[in-house]
């Protein structure tokens, strides 16, 4: 499938309330978030605003990903300088994105999508930091230092511990509140 074909299909699906992504040649349906998922994204946004007021966490921002920008992902959050997406359509390049955030959903595709496909796509794109909040494992993972299509550093902390998001993000998260938003 070509990128422009995907964009047409995704636009039609969005009108029907279905959110699609196209990563590594695979069409995927992005799960509708539950209330706890929304609270986690709000919590990350709040910390970003408090610690890095020059950046904004754009929720559900459509990004062109992968080496040749043929993939399309809608991370739960894309952290970038304010105004980075002005004048862009639904799908923008990720050139100014310093971090993407994903919160796992309770669906069957989460394992492959959030833990395998997306880290590879985001690293190929050159996004410096990928924050994965894994509600199944009750841990926070920070992928950083993209190199040759993969992140060379992964920090993993259980919920309740503090984790530092490296440069260019430079934010520290005390993950204790995440315990309240898991099943």
Automatic annotation (TrEMBL):
Domain Putative restriction endonuclease: 4-175
Keyword Nuclease: yes
Keyword set, alphabetical order: Endonuclease, Hydrolase, Nuclease
Protein name: Endonuclease, Uma2 family (Restriction endonuclease fold)
Entry-linked Pfam families: Uma2
Single GO MF descriptor: endonuclease activity
Regions annotated as coiled coil: none
């Amino acid at each position: 499938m070509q990128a422009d074909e995907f964009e047409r299909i995704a636009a039609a699906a969005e009108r029907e309330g279905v959110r699609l992504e196209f990563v590594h040649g695979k069409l995927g349906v992005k799960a509708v978030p539950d209330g706890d998922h929304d609270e986690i994204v709000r919590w990350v946004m709040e910390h970003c605003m408090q610690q890095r007021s020059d950046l904004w966490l754009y929720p559900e921002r459509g990004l062109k990903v992968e080496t040749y920008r043929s993939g399309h992902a809608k991370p739960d959050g894309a952290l970038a300088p304010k105004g980075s997406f002005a004048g862009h359509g639904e799908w923008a390049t990720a050139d100014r994105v310093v971090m993407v955030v994903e919160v796992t959903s309770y669906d069957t595709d989460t394992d492959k999508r959030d833990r395998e496909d997306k880290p590879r796509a985001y690293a190929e794109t050159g996004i410096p930091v990928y924050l994965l909040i894994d509600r199944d494992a009750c841990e926070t993972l920070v992928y950083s230092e993209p190199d040759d299509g993969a992140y060379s550093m992964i920090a993993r902390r259980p919920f309740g511990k503090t984790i530092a998001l490296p440069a260019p993000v430079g934010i520290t998260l005390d993950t204790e509140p995440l315990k309240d938003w898991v099943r």
